[in-house]
Write a structure and sequence with these properties.
eight-stranded mixed sheet, alpha/beta, Rossmann fold, elongated, Nucleotidyltransferase, domain 5, five-stranded mixed sheet, 2 domains, single chain, about 500 residues
Length: about 500
Amino acid sequence: MAASAYESQLRADIGSYFHDPLKYALYNWPKLDLRQWQVEYFLEVAGRLKDNPYEPIQTATASGHGIGKGCCGAILVHWAISTREMTRGVVTANTDTQLRTKTWPELAKWHGMARNEHWFTCTATSLYHPRHEKNWRVDAIPWSETNTEAFAGLHNQGSRIVLWFDEASAIHDRIWEVSEGALTDEQTEILWIAKGNPTRTVGRFKDCFGRFKHRWITRHIDARTVEGTNKVQLAKYIDDYGEDSDFARVRVRGLFPRASAMQFIDSDLVEQAAKRPALHGLRDPLIMSVDVARGGADEYVIAYRRGMDARSIPWVCIPGSETRDSTKVIAKIVDLAVNSPPALRPDAIFVDETGIGGPIVDRLRQLLGDLMPVYGVAFSGASRDKKLANARMFIWWQMREAFRTGLAIPDDTELHTQLTAPEFHHDKHDKLILEDKDAMRERIGVSPDRADALAIGFFMPVAPREDTAYVRGMRGTHHDPSRGHDPYAGM
């Protein structure tokens, strides 16, 4: 076949795989021996494209070692740029070293073996069409949370966009958030590939399998089930570390760890607390605890807990952006404390008095001091346990113990994320200290407002309910516990 005829046939063949990455892969690399999960993956993408090509396709694959994630990602990116003109894309990874030495070389390897290798120029950082260098290209870009412009500018309306996040678990949440801007282009095919070992218990890769799972096509792949993996070595991992160890979960089974090395509250504890029955004793005092918002993205959170039951009474969450006037928050707290049915009136109120919380505590004491005690909790204050660095570490420590002894919490994804996210370390005095709010917000993009609200209620014990001034004041009423009536009736 003449060169011109061969080229025409090549273009026609590859063009026919516009929405079929599996046939493209088998055609472009005739000796390719795909694994079953890769075949299923390519078929899933093809099906989504045929159903609605302009609905963003977001795929997240968490797996053990050696299953061929890099090969799959490289082939999909190569298909994307080869079957639609003016495609643009970005490839990034958890570290610059991973990107330069593993992820991008994998793409370059498969490009070098492709039938249409001569269509594109491949450099150490780019794959592009030589006649359309600016508009038909994929770039390897290391990420930085302080420099997100390359990801923010990824728009290509009317054509195709491809993003490949390799070892996605350790890519900063800001990069994920900025990259979502590319999903807004109309009449555009958008493919977002996220793959990697599930090494972290928090972050946007974990969220693909949690609070955002309705947006993502997700897979957990056990390396032992995949053709061509080193079954002997994988078995050694299981023998050495245990089937359910975090090492085996991440490196073999493709499951997220139960706890990171410095995670303070295990994910399992939180999951169990959301599923167990919410129980409390007749005399357990009702605690209202309030975390104060410090910015527009934070929340004022009013949490309730009666004994080990932090679920039955709905919490109140007020976005900081909706009320910049603390008097409205104070009015809400007072209304809940005074005007609720008797069984819902708190026996004590604990309020975060750090920063702007101080005046709120003072005003609540003026308004409620004769009815119920109001306690201010300064996170940086002294701990009552000498091995803990400050009051915040102390209240979280008390809360963790409650998780271990039967605490029941709301089935709230935001709360669960915030409870499991904070890490801890030793300070210069060798005392345990919890990651502060600002550090956590910087690391994963969220503030633990709901988790702190729950923790504040563990600052100090409160007298059993029938011994409180509130209940003593009810004696003689139809709620009088001494008459045998249940003060929680009707709840």
